[in-house]
From TrEMBL:
Descriptive protein name: Phosphoribosylformimino-5-aminoimidazole carboxamide ribotide isomerase
Keyword Metal-binding: yes
UniProt organism field: Microbulbifer rhizosphaerae
Pfam families: GBBH-like_N
GO molecular function (one): 1-(5-phosphoribosyl)-5-[(5-phosphoribosylamino)methylideneamino]imidazole-4-carboxamide isomerase activity
Length: 125
C-alpha cells in the first residue's frame, strides 16, 4: 500500500491528519490509542482486543516513520509500541464511525468510561 501524501500531527486538536491519493482522514488521538495495533491492546492471539479505557485526554507526543510501510505513534501516556501500517491507518479512517460506536458500546457494557477521572463507583439507592 502506498504511503499517505501528507501526514500532519495537530497536537492542539489531538489528532493526526492523513492525506492519501484518494481520501483524507482526521483521526483523534484517543481513537488511535484505543485501537493501537500493539500486543498490549491486541493481546497475544486473543480473538477480541483488550478494552482500553480512560484515554479521553490522551495526546500524541510524536510520530515517526517505521520503514516505508508504517508509523510509530508515541502517545503522551507513554504508550509507544504500536506500529500503524498504511493499510491499518486507512482501515481506521474508512471504518471510524463503526469502530468508534463499537468501542463506546464495549465501554458501556464493561461499566467503564472514556474519562480517567470518572468514578467507576455505582451508587445504589
Amino acid at each position: 500500500m502506498k504511503a499517505p501524501k501528507k501526514i500532519r500531527l495537530n497536537r492542539t486538536e489531538k489528532n493526526l491528519q492523513l492525506l492519501f491519493d484518494d481520501a483524507e482522514y482526521t483521526l483523534p488521538a484517543e481513537y488511535l490509542r484505543v485501537h493501537s495495533p500493539s500486543a498490549e491492546v491486541r493481546g497475544h492471539g486473543a480473538s477480541e482486543p483488550l478494552l482500553v479505557s480512560g484515554k479521553m485526554h490522551v495526546g500524541i507526543e510524536s510520530v515517526e516513520t517505521a520503514g516505508r510501510y508504517a508509523l510509530k505513534i508515541v502517545f503522551d501516556d507513554g504508550h509507544d509500541s504500536g506500529i500503524y501500517t498504511w493499510e491499518y491507518l486507512r482501515e481506521l479512517g474508512e471504518n471510524y464511525a463503526v469502530n468508534w460506536d463499537a468501542y463506546l458500546q464495549r465501554l458501556q457494557q464493561a461499566g467503564k468510561g472514556r474519562d480517567p477521572d470518572e468514578s467507576p463507583v455505582k451508587f445504589i439507592n
